């Protein structure tokens, strides 16, 4: 019976990173040394689960070694340090292109019957109930300048978290009282930012944030993990919510 119990416990034990993997992850993402020990341990658990649950599929001749897969998993799990492994639910695959990729778009206007088709060139995409799609070149370019405000994997993971409540609207699953505060503060900041962009102002925050409320949340998330001081100066209420939601950024920015 004891032997059976040990086997059952081993079968259900959560995956763990080896010491060598932990060291490799820190080499791949040097800014992780700024995480307090408990948060770093939490990240290691999330990364182990990510690698166990997700299939990382390189495309178009790209090859990713174990260290590169660790790096990608580490970036994807950064936004989950406070939110938890729930952020990994609902999808199983990561598609990684060597660089920017093209997506065929089609829109049917029901009012006019007009069908429009076009091609978008993207560096990343998060499908509602499908894969995370990423450009490896963009990930590496951003890691070379980690405080410049861009963090593709965080951006797409923000969309994955956002959709967990059934609507990609810039408001992730939150307790009711916090959700009301979040919606109020983000909407006010989004509308103010859109006015600045519409007026032709050159904003310190990427103007892509004005595309839609969900993009505003995703872009703000990038700045939290790459240039949090700039985000706090430009949008203090948004920065305060993200500090609470994501925890302290390991990049001081």
From TrEMBL:
Pfam families: Peptidase_M90 (PF06167)
InterPro entries given in the database record: MetalloPept_cat_dom_sf, MtfA_fam, MtfA_N
Domain of life: Bacteria
Protein name, as recorded: Zinc-dependent peptidase
